[in-house]
Design a protein that fits this description.
It is a single chain. The chain is built from 33 helices and eight strands. α6 packs across α7 and α23 packs across α26. The radius of gyration is 33 Å and the shape is globular. The strands form two sheets. It has a four-stranded antiparallel β-sheet with strand order 1-8-3-6. A four-stranded antiparallel β-sheet has the order 2-7-4-5, with no helix packed on it. It is mainly alpha-helical. The relative contact order is 0.06.
Length: 835
């Protein structure tokens, strides 16, 4: 058989095997990677024997083909790793990752260093291959596969933040481990001096450089993909190309970590590409990358595991001792992370509190996967590495990977059962029974309605629903004999149901094209805050998280600082437009949740619990409505544009549904439907992005709103405007604090501020046309009052130097400011402390 045909035949046969192995893993209820590793080892044992037996026919040719597979070690790193890491990073919710980026990086880098040095230090006394080789084994085995643990956590309803910590830690853990592996490998091969401090500096440089290259490549991809919008094949092809380009550019041209660059590129695409790539393409892109990741991971496992038997067959008795030391050391290193680093992060307020049961699962569930195997198999083929070191690394690394898969992987679920993490609490059983009773009652009623509508005898309908009646009777007995739900359990359950339903509503509105992808990502991130808050502190945690969700984000605050210090308006305008649309959608969904609470949760939980939940939603709705009203009041025209855009999206979705209905009823053909949808897509593109928000902060426009500047000529107004800077104050923002040095005064162009003076029971309100902050400039004394914005305020800021120059040049303005200052001083002289 020709070489190419032989390779294709072997690959095709392995693809068939992969498909069946996934189905078998589901039937046996074992992790897919465990079964895959076992199958790879079995293939490695059988291939050589059956290929030697030979014989005619496709069966013998298949065994001969896979026995001749001899991928070079670099293929595992350059062919498979970019696909594996890009797919993992693309699936991460970047906004939630950024919320916990500091603890994730600390946990990831800390875990890699701990694993490397603990394993290296433990192995070094038992072998003469040298410390560097021992550290290299530790770096290889520092990578972890989070799939099994994260999947189990999701099934058990663990806090989302915990799952994100584990997922994010594993992602950056892989990147950090591969950077360290590369450095140690260079020392071992003689390409780099064996200097640990210098290696650590090189580690930081390589990791940081990889981040920089990844940021540039990710942004470049987002720029290049924009013109290809609605061309799915081209868009997806570009992402595959950039997975390899970012790796090659970083590794070979920038000489930094290609692995980190791939991860960061994928994270940038996940965060920004969702708005650049069309929604329909994004769904397909995710599926394509899942498929590519599945193939890459599966082939690494199979092909690498096939090489394991000859490696392990060459193992000596001393390797068993080293293997035992390695197992203990790796588990100790993981325990240090779980029971040392995690509590430290929790104590510092950077991580969610993790129970001992969950920590134990994280410890035992630290399986090693395709990345570890790919790294381990890169060593035996390097002629620059001594043969005894090759054998040492290959035997220990592959042996430990198999141990984690075949021992830890198969015993993980029994461990969870032993820790009672897979059992419903009495309260959960009661809720399940109530939900089941509600569902079965509705099924009974539906069958009776169908029977009546179709003219079927009701006796037949009763016989058809008899099994449901028997189940309802059994559930009723369980409810009587079972746990009586306390109000706090009902309330907590109701909050979790509301949170999950809220997320499903946001996703549903996005799929229908009513909500943009940027907004739905923002809102789903905030739903995660609600979930974690409710899990941690019940109603109080939920309400605290809802306040955070309605408040101003750190991005908004940074955008405002950029506007104030650099005069750039667009970041703040962008954040305000996102806030505007997010509040609009939140208010809409909260009204839907109120209906859901009245009609569904009252029957499931109780009328009293439903009323309490309704009150929680009502309070949250009032806060959101108030925040939205403040924006409406300040930007009424923009509010109307957003509402018009929202209704246009609803209309387009409804129009599309009507056309699809006509096609389903064969009233129009596919050609007509395609033509109608083409017109729909053109109109949908026009309302896909929010309209630009004009902040209206140009001093030349604002200065005319201040009465004391009225009547001045255009030249004089222009000269004054050049000395002023427009500024937008956010609601409740502290503009001036008592006791600080006065370095500017402010003119109010729109909005209201509160002036709180010590000794004065009620604050003084200043509105449009008035000014404040002048008294500290005139007296050269510290500020004597606190000034806070009540709502959004348009201000003109005049620096101290420009203030003195202005009042020297304009005597009329000087007189007006001095007169106002004297009047304020006389008023405040009656108060204790004076001005």
């Amino acid at each position: 058989m020709h070489d190419i045909v032989s390779i294709l035949f072997g690959v095709a046969g392995l693809l068939v095997l992969l498909g069946f192995l996934q189905a078998v893993a589901g039937r046996l209820n074992v992790p897919y990677t465990v079964l895959l590793a076992g199958a790879g080892v079995a293939l490695g044992l059988l291939a050589g024997v059956l290929a030697q037996i030979g014989g005619p026919g496709p069966f013998a040719d298949f065994w001969r083909a896979i026995s001749e597979f001899n991928l070079p070690a670099e293929a595992y790193l350059y062919l498979f790793l970019p696909l594996l890491l890009f797919e993992m990073a693309l699936a991460i919710e970047v906004r939630r990752l950024l919320d916990d980026l500091a603890p994730i990086l600390l946990l990831a880098v800390g875990a890699v260093l701990v694993s490397t040095f603990v394993v290296g230090a433990a192995l070094a006394p038992f072998t003469d291959v040298g410390l560097i080789a021992c550290l290299l084994v530790g770096a290889i085995l520092a990578t972890t596969d989070p799939v099994a643990v994260v999947g189990i956590f999701r099934d058990l309803g663990a806090p989302r933040r915990l799952a994100m910590l584990i997922e994010g830690e594993s992602l950056f853990n892989d990147a950090a481990a591969i950077v360290l592996f590369t450095l140690l490998y260079g020392m071992l091969a003689g390409d780099r001096p064996a200097d640990i401090p210098q290696a650590l500096l090189a580690f930081v440089w390589s990791f940081g450089g990889g981040i920089a290259v990844g940021l540039v490549m990710g942004r470049l991809l987002c720029v290049l993909v924009t013109p290809l919008r609605d061309l799915p094949m081209a868009e997806i092809s570009l992402t595959v190309a950039f997975a390899y380009l970012s790796f090659i550019v970083a590794q070979h041209y920038a000489e930094v970590s290609g692995v980190v660059a791939v991860v960061v590129t994928a994270l940038v695409v996940s965060a920004l590409g969702r708005t650049r790539i069309s929604p329909r393409t994004w769904d397909g892109l995710e599926q394509v990358w899942k498929q590519l990741g599945f193939w890459a991971s599966s082939f690494v496992f199979l092909l690498a595991a096939m090489k394991v038997p000859p490696i392990l067959l060459d193992a000596e008795a001393s390797d068993l001792l080293l293997g035992g030391v390695l197992v203990v050391a790796a588990l100790v290193a993981r325990a240090v992370v779980c029971f040392g680093l995690l509590p430290l992060l929790t104590w510092a307020g950077l991580a969610h509190k993790v129970s001992y049961a969950f920590k134990t699962v994280i410890l035992w569930g630290g399986l090693r996967g395709a990345v570890s195997l790919a790294l381990a198999l890169a060593i035996p083929e390097d002629p620059n590495v001594a043969e005894e070191v090759q054998d040492f690394v290959a035997v220990l690394a592959t042996g430990y990977v198999l141990f984690t898969l075949l021992v830890q992987g198969t015993t993980l679920k029994p461990l969870i059962h032993l820790l009672r993490l897979d059992r419903l609490s009495a309260a959960q059983v009661a809720i399940r029974n109530r939900a089941l009773a509600l569902a079965l009652t509705q099924v009974q009623e539906h069958i009776e309605v169908v029977a009546w509508h179709e003219g079927i005898d009701l006796d037949i309908a009763h016989r058809a629903t008899r099994q449901y009646g028997e189940k309802l009777d059994a559930i009723g007995r369980d409810l009587v004999a079972g746990c009586v739900l306390e109000e706090k359990d009902r309330l907590f359950t109701g909050l979790v149901i509301l949170i999950n339903h809220e997320e499903s509503l946001y996703r549903s509105h996005f799929r229908e094209g009513i909500v943009s992808r940027v907004i739905v990502e923002t809102l789903i991130t905030r739903v995660g805050w609600l979930y974690d808050g409710a899990r941690a502190e019940g109603r109080a945690g939920y309400e605290a998280a809802s306040e955070r969700a309605t408040g101003f984000t750190q991005r908004m605050i940074w955008a405002q600082r950029i506007q104030q210090r650099l005069g750039l308006d667009w970041p703040l305008a962008r954040r305000l437009s996102v806030r505007f649309e997010a509040l609009l959608v939140t208010c809409m969904v909260l009204r839907e949740l109120q209906d859901f609470c009245r009609h569904k949760l009252a029957a499931l939980l109780s009328e009293a619990t439903a009323r309490t939940l309704g009150e929680v939603l009502e309070t949250r709705g009032k806060v959101a409505e108030k925040a939205l009203a403040a924006l409406r009041q300040h930007y009424p025209d923009y509010a109307q544009l957003l509402e018009h855009q929202y209704l246009s999206r609803v209309a387009l979705r409804r129009e599309e549904a009507e056309y699809e209905g006509l096609r389903a009823e064969s009233l129009i053909g596919q050609e007509i439907l395609n033509d109608l949808k083409g017109d729909l897509e053109r109109r949908r593109a026009a309302v896909e992005h929010p309209p630009p928000l004009e902040l209206g902060l140009l001093p030349a426009q604002l200065v005319s709103r201040v009465p004391i500047f009225a009547g001045l000529g255009e030249d004089r107004l222009g000269a004054i405007a050049r000395q002023l800077r427009g500024r937008l104050a956010l609601p409740d923002e502290m503009l001036i604090q008592r006791g600080e040095r006065g370095d500017a005064m402010f003119f109010i162009c729109a909005g209201t501020v509160d002036v709180r003076v010590p000794g004065l029971a009620t604050p003084i309100h200043l509105g449009s046309g008035e000014f404040f902050g002048e008294m500290a400039l005139l007296s050269r004394q510290p500020r004597n009052a606190d000034v806070r914005a009540i709502g959004y305020c348009h201000l003109l800021e005049l620096s101290e130097a420009d203030f003195r120059r202005l009042i020297e040049q304009d005597q009329e303005l000087r007189g007006h400011i001095l007169a106002t200052a004297r009047e304020r001083k006389l008023t405040l002289d009656h108060l204790e402390g004076g001005v």
